Amino acid sequence: MTFSGIWLWFCLLAIAASIAKVYYIKRIGGGISNLYILFYARLATCLALLPFAASVQLPASPVFWFATCAAVLLTTLAGYVYIEALKRGPLCIVSAVQAAIPVMMVAVIALFWEQYPPAAALFFLFGMAACIGMVFFSRAGGGHAVSDAGAVYLSLLAAALYAVSTVLDKVAVAAVEHGAFNYTLIWNALSAMLLVILLRGRINLPAGGGPRRLLFIVAVSSLAAFLAQQYAVQYSLHMANGVTYVKSMVMLHIVGLMLLGVFVLGERPPRGALTAGLLGVLCAVGLVLFSG
Hints:
By secondary structure, the protein is mostly helical.
């Protein structure tokens, strides 16, 4: 592995954009519906991909369509649940729980495909599971378990849904030729259409300059995070396990979110929960690296 090259710069851009996206979703609070946030984030990506729409080949594989439609439904639900968790709980704890995604991906793949990670990866897997338990049972100053347990449960549910949908991504891409290109465009288009249906066609912008500005930042950040990660993967293909390194690097955005929660938003979570969250992120990065 070499820590040089353009792929690393795209990773850093993806980290910054991911931090901005989640942070400003937290800033929006309850002023805008979760579905509106998801729709405009997806719309930005669809508009960026529009010039390539003519090149899409509609696959005939039923496996592709089943996996794609299931991934669209699960990712939309996961996004809704995660935004709700961000609105209800502290950013530093809710975001840390998302480090459970690779653990759950390993579990799904082992359960349905009987593919198991190397022994070294199991160390990080069990470490991550222990850290999640510590987040739930950490004690605040008054001796009570972390007071935002509801938000933590929602974030954990979102992580599980994201994990399953990510595995479905791989199934869909592998089912057809040029799967990554076709899947990216079709998935984004179907996601946007689903959100329009859920919003019953009411996609007008929210009133007030403040909410609109925050929504615009979230949409642009979502697009930047998506494109930066795609280019990071593209420019890392010359390296062995390049995609694994990209995923591990981008996961570090969770650390940035935790720091923002504590030092910018003034959150004061139980020390045990915060420590467990940071250790959990490191375990998740290790799991991705050793599973690759």
